[in-house]
């Protein structure tokens, strides 16, 4: 009886050792034997590139693994997998390209780079015949990239609706459950560690927009960058907006919305706060959790839910990709690359189809409702519901529209503001998830 020679070790290097990187390294070292059994070859962490060697790090990570020469590490020539968790555009892009050119597959959590210049990374991976995997770039531990990239590859995805930023979901959830204003809810999120000292990337929607670009590209086989994504944050959402949503049986969420038209000729990708019915599955996503709701022709409605950030949850997604990529190296194959065969038009926000919830402060006198209805009719916007609240100086009309082009809805709001009997339009918010 003969036995095969043991497989050579899969050599792994890592770029960055922050919150996520520390957890990835810890699991790689602690579970090396078990991961090796799953891969079919020993797994060996051979180096970690950091900016400063003197920074205090986990005692579980041997100091001899650290180096400040990231370029030398990724180009050493004997690596099988490089994990990138430093974030940002540069030097991450340069180092990923160097790793691929040097023969290593890449696992990255870098949503910003993928959303800005993913095509460059994909092309380099194809040229090198190496893998580029990035499950951790969208929604932390939630497996959504691979289902869109592989599991639903034979289906027709029609819509992806997601809560993909935990900070904003925590803030909006706090505003819903406590009645707090935005500033107070943000302060609480920062106190509890759910928001950064500078929360701009989260509360202004930049983080969610990058993730939306990635999801749309995967779902619709079309190259989408962050520049294609319409983006609005939550800083203008008020306690009154949240209360108004409650009055119509809805909640306010920051949503990433990716959808294709019925003809399959154009896609819309947008991030903005919206009211969704309290009965919608996404309405029950609480705190800092994330969820992605997928609608497809054959599979129907699917929802993926879980922690969207944090060291250990994100490390789980990274390690899942590492095992897959390492198996490919053992077998001498590589996985799916970018699919942009559809390459359909990406619409600007004005051509997106949506609904509005509009609160209009009006004079309490005859003819007001007719004038308001006429402003909607002029722009071919159909009214679904209208109700009056208050009397006299507190009179207010609350209008919910049927679906229309966003440009027509925006033009209607502008005309409303010019009407003599309208004192002001106090709130405008899109409505999603309503049939």
UniProtKB/TrEMBL annotation:
Q: Does the keyword Iron-sulfur apply?
A: no
Binding residue positions for NADP(+): 15-22
Which transformation does this protein catalyse, written as a reaction? L-homoserine + NADP(+) = L-aspartate 4-semialdehyde + NADPH + H(+); L-homoserine + NAD(+) = L-aspartate 4-semialdehyde + NADH + H(+)
ACT domain: which residues?
Answer: 357-430
Which residues bind L-homoserine per the record? 196
Residue ranges that the Swiss-Prot or TrEMBL entry lists as coiled coil: none
Cofactor names from the entry are: a metal cation
Protein EC: 1.1.1.3
Check the record and name the InterPro entries matching this protein.
Answer: ACT-like_dom_sf, ACT_dom, Asp/hSer_DH_NAD-bd, HDH, HDH_cat, HDH_CS, NAD(P)-bd_dom_sf
Q: Where does this protein act, in terms of pathway?
A: Amino-acid biosynthesis; L-methionine biosynthesis via de novo pathway; L-homoserine from L-aspartate: step 3/3; Amino-acid biosynthesis; L-threonine biosynthesis; L-threonine from L-aspartate: step 3/5
Tell me the function of this protein: Catalyzes the conversion of L-aspartate-beta-semialdehyde (L-Asa) to L-homoserine (L-Hse), the third step in the biosynthesis of threonine and methionine from aspartate.
Per the record, the similarity remark reads: Belongs to the homoserine dehydrogenase family.
Q: Which NCBIfam families match?
A: PRK06349.1
Task: Provide the protein name.
Answer: Homoserine dehydrogenase
Q: Which organism is it from?
A: Aeromicrobium phoceense
Taxonomic classification: Bacteria, Bacillati, Actinomycetota, Actinomycetes, Propionibacteriales
């Amino acid at each position: 009886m003969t036995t095969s020679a043991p497989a050579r070790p899969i050599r792994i290097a890592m770029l960055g050792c922050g919150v996520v990187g520390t957890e990835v390294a810890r699991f790689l070292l602690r579970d090396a034997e078990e991961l090796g059994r799953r891969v079919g070859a020993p797994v060996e962490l051979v180096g970690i590139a950091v900016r400063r060697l003197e920074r205090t790090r986990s005692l579980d990570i041997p100091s001899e693994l650290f180096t400040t020469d990231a370029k030398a590490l990724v180009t050493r020539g004997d690596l099988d997998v490089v994990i990138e968790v430093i974030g940002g555009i540069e030097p991450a892009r340069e180092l990923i390209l160097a790793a691929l050119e040097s023969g290593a597959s890449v696992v990255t959590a870098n949503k910003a780079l993928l959303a800005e210049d993913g095509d460059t990374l994909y092309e380099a991976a194809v040229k090198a015949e190496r893998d580029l995997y990035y499950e951790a770039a969208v929604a932390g531990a939630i497996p959504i990239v691979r289902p869109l990239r592989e599991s639903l590859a034979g289906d027709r995805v029609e819509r992806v609706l997601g809560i993909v930023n935990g900070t904003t979901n925590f803030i909006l959830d706090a505003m819903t459950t406590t009645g707090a204003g935005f500033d107070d809810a943000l302060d609480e999120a920062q106190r509890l560690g759910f928001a950064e000292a500078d929360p701009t990337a989260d509360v202004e929607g930049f983080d969610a927009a990058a993730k939306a670009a990635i999801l749309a590209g995967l779902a619709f086989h079309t190259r989408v960058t962050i520049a294609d994504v319409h983006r609005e944050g939550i800083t203008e959402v008020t306690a009154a907006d949240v209360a108004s949503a409650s009055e119509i049986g809805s909640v306010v969420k920051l949503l990433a919305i990716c959808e294709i038209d019925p003809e399959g000729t154009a896609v819309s990708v947008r991030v903005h706060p919206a009211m969704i019915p309290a009965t919608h599955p996404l309405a029950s996503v609480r705190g800092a959790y994330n969820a992605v709701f997928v609608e497809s022709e054959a599979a129907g409605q699917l929802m993926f839910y879980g922690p969207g950030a944090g060291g250990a949850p994100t490390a789980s997604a990274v390690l899942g990709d590492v095992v897959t990529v390492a198996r490919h190296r053992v077998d001498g194959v590589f996985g799916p690359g970018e699919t942009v065969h559809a390459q359909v038009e990406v619409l600007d926000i004005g051509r997106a189809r949506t609904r509005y919830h509009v609160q209009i402060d009006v004079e309490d006198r005859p003819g007001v409702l007719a004038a308001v209805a006429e402003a909607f009719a002029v722009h071919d916007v159909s009214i679904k519901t209208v109700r009056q609240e208050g009397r006299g100086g507190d009179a207010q009309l609350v209008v919910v529209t049927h679906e229309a082009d966003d440009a027509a809805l925006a033009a209607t709001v502008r005309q409303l503001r010019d009407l003599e009997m309208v004192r002001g339009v106090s709130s405008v918010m899109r409505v999603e998830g309503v049939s």
